Amino acid sequence: MLMQGQCQHCAGIFEYETGSEYEFCPHCGKKTYCLTPRASKRSFQSIIAWTFAAIFAVTSILFASLYLSEKHSLQRTETALDMTEKSEAELRSNVQAAIDAQDKQGTQAAAQDNVSELAAEGRQALSGIYYCQQAVGKNELDMRSDGSAVWLNEGSNQNGWPATWTTDGDTITVITGSRTENFKIEGADLIDARGNRWLHIR
Questions:
Q1: Mean pLDDT for the chain?
Q2: In which domain, by residue range, is 165 found?
Q3: What is the mean pLDDT of residues 173-186?
Q4: Using an 8 Å Cβ cutoff, are 24 and 33 in contact?
Q5: Which residue of 39, 142, 155, 161 could cross-link 151, Cys pair, CB 3.0 to 4.6 Å?
Q6: Which residues of 88-104 are buried (b: 16+ CB within 10 A; e: fewer)?
């Protein structure tokens, strides 16, 4: 039984025996499948459709892969930027804290120096020999600028009694061994706890 087929090369119509798989096209002379024109057309359309579907699928996969790659790259970049900003903020905070601590230390040192200078000036201004006519026994007090002192008796040939002295600006404390004497500063003179005036004679 004869069937009609269509050449897959030149699309020419030819006849072939039922059961034949290949024939030579009478139009172009090339070997072709024995397919009916409709089947051949459907097969061609099917191949085209599957080809476009495959291209679309591959393209979609590529775009999805690129999108995910860009998304991950962007997330990594944002994370790195956040870490960089945090590191910079922490660094600025540490630097500022170090600067503040250094300034505070410098201020404290300057204040301590001022206190020391004022204390030295105060000791220098208060140092000298004080004499009290009403005092019995030790009636002269020699206070030195280095904080040491010596009790003396008027007219005595003894070396005196060593002592130390400090001041808070209003009062003077003289310590001799275990004994402590407190004086109130009044002008250039001192007033002891009994109300006696010690004159700053030199």
A1: 83
A2: 127-200
A3: 91
A4: no
A5: 161
A6: eeeeeeeeeeeeeeeee
